[in-house]
Amino acid sequence: MNAALPSTMLQAPKPPVPPRAVIFDLDGVITDTAQYHFHAWQRLAVSLGLPFDEAFNETLKGIDRMGSLERILARGTRVYTPQQKLALARQKNEHYIALISTMDASQLLPGALDALCAVRGAGLRIGLASASRNAALVLTRLGITRCFDHVVEVEDIERPKPDPEIFLTAAQRLGVRPVQCIGVEDAAAGVAAIKAAGMWAVGIGDAAVLAQADEVIPGLHRFDIARYL
Ligand code: BG6
Ligand code: MG
Question: How far apart are CA 135 and CA 202, in angstroms?
Answer without folding.
Answer: 20
